[in-house]
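Q: How do we represent a protein-ligand complex in a form that can be generated token by token?
A: Start from the inputs.
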Amino acid sequence: MRKIALEEHFNGPGFEKYLSAVAGEFDPAVLAAVEKLLPEFDEKRLQVMDACDIEIAVLSQTAPGVQQETDTGRATKAACSVNDFLAAQIARHPKRYRGFACVALQDPVQAARELERCVKDLGFVGALVNGHTCGTYLDHPSFQPFWEKLMELQVPLYLHPGLLYDEPHMFSGRRELSGATWSWTCETATHALRLVFGGVFEKFPQAKVILGHMGETLPFELWRLDSRAQTTSAGRAMKQPPSEYIRKNIVVTTSGVCANGPLLCSLLELGEDSVMFSTDFPYEDALVAARFIEEAPISREQREKVCFRTAERLLRL
Ligand code: MN
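Then emit the structure tokens for the protein with manganese (II) ion bound:
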């Protein structure tokens, strides 16, 4: 079945120094294989896409991108240049690639302007942010201009994992739990819940946030979030239970999770129009992801929605 994939990464020129910050989370051999594929846009990437029946890949600058750059001017410049670079790659394969904008949220007003340029001039379909920006999360009031621009342009924000701001004690002596195995999941799920509990979706009811990795465990937690929110005054003060915001404002992709249990849970808890196929190329095996969704025990209609219909609608392809 033809597919659209939304969490597909590349590394742009000059971003090697940012990528090296996450290098410690991988074995050298694993990292070397990934690093070979990240800057590639032709034969190898297209071969994998063809083998998976991926018609369109929405490409994004890999983590941590500019999110950890402490020099605001440098971050803004780097985001702009990598967006131009991506636009040039898409122009060489216009039928196969789309783009998510890289945005330097160190300056939210400038980031909003860059998002507008990317969507209106370069034809990008949204933005992808790699976690907190130098310790600030997207529920912070300073990001209002950026959220307003997302609403005005009617494009989604992909909230992708990034580095933890600090190393919590609970991971001490267990380095193997940090990174993609577990700590990034905690970080990203918490970031998404900050948006829910911080009133971002109350303020911007049309907002669409995409979470990878089958929703970073959140689909599994909806009932408990609602139940326990009622035990705090801040939770009771929310206009809707947390699950309502998650169902309405958050959509998830299958990136990096190729198991029927989490897929069925996400479809059941979030709804059939809230789950989209992705592979997390080149960090994950795209062929495994494609086979998984082809063989998953869901109806043809559900598979079509997951593979391409929901992405087509959300990204207006
Ligand atoms: Mn990813």
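The chain has a mean pLDDT of 97. Residues 3-315 form a domain with the TIM Barrel fold (CATH 3.20.20.140).
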